[in-house]
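User: We ran a pulldown and think these components assemble together. Before we commit to crystallization trials, I'd like a predicted model of the whole complex to look at. Sequences follow.
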Amino acid sequence: MPNQFFIIVEKNDSGKLRQFKIGKFNNETNKILKKYDSNYVWGIHKGAIGSIWNKIRKNDKVYLTVQRENFKIIGIVSKKTSNPNFGELIYPTAIDKKQINHFLFFDKLEKCSISYHELKNNSISKLFGEEGIHEIKKEYYSEKVKKVKPVKIKKLKKLPSEKIIGQAERRRRNVEGFVRNPTKVKNLKALYDNKCQIVQCDFILEYNSKNEKKFYSEVHHYNPLKKRADDDYGNMLVLCPNHHAEFDFRVKFIHRDGITIINQNGKETGETIKFRDRHALDIKNIEKQLEE
Ligand SMILES: [Zn+2]
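Assistant: Here's a predicted model for the assembly, 292 residues in total across the polymer chains.
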């Protein structure tokens, strides 16, 4: 389960936080955002990060608020990075811009209705009230999660007819020599509407009579089943045939950050991969592919 954190911003930085909420950034920041396939970035002073920084992971929930105020927003972490140069680019007018070198990226922000005091009372930190990152007690949100119904995977839209994809599917099964769990494959394809998880990539199968696109996708087991890897969502990706082949031939890999695509020389290809809802690749599977 993702963890939750509370970032308290000093009162004199509240303007910066409001700017962040509006999503108005300078050109340099927009370039960085584009590179990381995100829409928002929040920088943290190196003196304010503490050891909690290391605990933050992709998909963790972060509340951002101003000291003792009720101004709050929530973001789900899409990427975390430390970069000594970003502070000067993102906060060119800040006095301490050289000291701002830890960054959290978000795809979207949401309004938060939880009060400052509720978050404060459920924080682990003893230094509460001070600027910086604070960890929220697991008991607090795990209770809430239990009450929430699990995310329902979208109802299957009609799949392309067996005639069109049947042969390719059969061939692949022969190659792999394993029968994959057909329900999981179906569910995952439906979750992504048959679109490749690589950002801005899809494979058009046909245009229907209303000229709407229908897509074609394949499910790739990131660690091969023939190596006794899991036939489970944490090892499955929805890809177009090109990207499927590139992963099969071990030309491309997923970086440890879980987002960036790298080639077999470890260089970024400029592509990123996106995950929907609660689907995520198990970190052990990412590590395993990088180790071999
Ligand atoms: Zn693709």
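Residues 162-176 form the longest helix (15 residues). That may be worth checking against your pulldown data before setting up trials.

User: Thanks, that helps.
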